[in-house]
Amino acid sequence: MIVEMDTRTHWEKIYSTKAPDAVSWFRPHLETSLALIERVAPDPSASVIDVGGGQSTLIDDLLARGYENISVLDISSTALDATRKRLGPLAEHVHWLVSDVTQVDLPPHTYDVWHDRAVFHFLTAKEQRIAYVEKVASAVKHGGHVVLSTFGPEGPAKCSGLDVVRYNAESLHSEFGERFDLVESFEELHNTPFGTSQQFLYCCLKRE
Ligand SMILES: C[S@@+](CC[C@H](N)C(=O)[O-])C[C@H]1O[C@@H](n2cnc3c(N)ncnc32)[C@H](O)[C@@H]1O
User: Fold this and answer.
1) Which ligand 1 atom lies nearest to the CA of residue 74?
2) pLDDT score of 197 more than 60
3) Beta strands of the chain (E only): which ranges?
4) From the CB of 150, is ligand 1 less than 6 Å away?
């Protein structure tokens, strides 16, 4: 699929040419995501998937807290190779998936938590968003949670040179539909490594 190839080429180029802390979305730790995951799934046996995890340290922090059933999915093998290398032997405790989230086959009713920071907002075509939501609805356990973070209404219109869709809690929830309850949402400013700030929206949804 042409869209998938273009997307993969874009992200492979980003991760092959930029240092991990030289991208606008970099944070040393994803504290907000971590706090939300710990709140909805405090038991470290919970099954957590980080979608579009890239080179973020969320995985290091989850492992440090004893989470033992973690998957990381990303379209870029370069990003995941770097994350695996950073983790060293701990990487063996993680399930790695190189795939486009809108195309991937995931086992049904598997995850207690689906985490996505700054991935869904790149899906500018309605059919991509529908495919994504179908993956979530199938792969997340009934009663499981979706922790999502996108640019908020006042966030940038582009990220990494790509157009994004900005959301408020209502518009993001409506993409997911009636199978998901909106549990909580809030906006937060992210300070980029370049001294600018970006408005993010965090939403926690529960799969019925
Ligand atoms: C802005 S970065 C965010 C990385 C990480 N979540 C964080 O917060 O640091 C977006 C990530 O999503 C990945 N990505 C973009 N489109 C994707 C897709 N369709 N399927 C899977 N991963 C994708 C990129 O390779 C990149 O790692």
Assistant:
1) 22
2) yes
3) 47-51, 69-74, 94-98, 111-117, 140-151, 158-159, 162-163, 180-191, 197-207
4) no
